[in-house]
Amino acid sequence: MDALKLENVGVRFGKRVVLKDVSFSLSGASSTALLGKNGAGKTTLLRCVLGIVKPFSGSVSVFGKKAGTVEAKRLIAYLPERPGVYERLNALQNMLFHAKLNGLHSEVAKRRSEELLEKLDLGSHTFSQVHTFSKGMKQRLAIARTFLTDSPLLLLDEPTSGLDPDGVSVLVSLIKERVEKGATVLIGTHNPYFASRVCECAMLLSAGRISRKGSLEEVVFQKRVRVSVLSKLNEETLKHALNGRPFKLLDQHQFEFCVKDKEDTAKVVETLVAQKLGVVRVEQAESLEEDFG
């Protein structure tokens, strides 16, 4: 069974469409990066999985249960972009309150809380009021809280925000440990270099659409080629012409796709010529950095 499945999901806020026809599924022990620059729709997508945001089209399910239901929420651990910790409680109280909400036995909750606080360099601040914490300390507390339960699906939204290099290293270790235990992890981030430390697979969200998906190497580190043609393009035409290869439609006469090398480029261009699309220009696109800025 898929841990997470989205089918043709669309979300709009007023007249502005934020997600468009988003479809993918995740399963098993895995860690997947949801990449994209700020404003691409990553947070909105994660909130759809939680049931906080309701799509106007399509469906979202968590282990076969409709997103937003009590049954689905019990299977998810969520780290929001902003920590959302309780300022008037101390660090341990934050952990134990979260544990109680999730039905964790008190003795187990206390032991796990102390272990996680120590691991995230908050051991000496166990009884300190959270309103005295720095931004980085609040983020580490939020991370500790997220990893407190044994939820089979983890959603992490910009988890490295406010972390120093040591904090990032601990986060990487926690994610890897959880995947080894069988969890499915989806990480929303604009940082492909962090993603490369914990994820093998990735999806690129651009202007509300999944424009590329595959291995992290395919999505992030391959070169892009831009093609201009005389014929008027649409997504169905390109899906057929490129035989399922991921692409990004720029306008009615231009699109981009990823390639491994010059030989790969030549094969694709040869196919496009055979499709009589009227190829007039083939050039290397700009750096992928623009997708994650």
Automatic annotation (TrEMBL):
Spans traversing the lipid bilayer: none
Domain ABC transporter: 4-232
CDD domains, sorted: ABC_DR_subfamily_A
Keyword entries, A-Z: ATP-binding, Nucleotide-binding, Transport
The keyword Amino-acid biosynthesis is assigned to this record: no
Source organism superkingdom: Archaea
GO MF term (any one): ATP binding
Keyword Protease in record: no
PROSITE patterns the record matches: ABC_TRANSPORTER_1, ABC_TRANSPORTER_2
Gene3D superfamilies with a match to the protein in the record: P-loop containing nucleotide triphosphate hydrolases
SUPFAM superfamilies xref list: P-loop containing nucleoside triphosphate hydrolases
PANTHER family the record matches: ABC TRANSPORTER ATP-BINDING PROTEIN ALBC-RELATED
Official protein name in the record: ABC transporter domain-containing protein
Organism: Candidatus Marsarchaeota G1 archaeon OSP_D
Lineage of source species: Archaea, Candidatus Marsarchaeota, Candidatus Marsarchaeota group 1
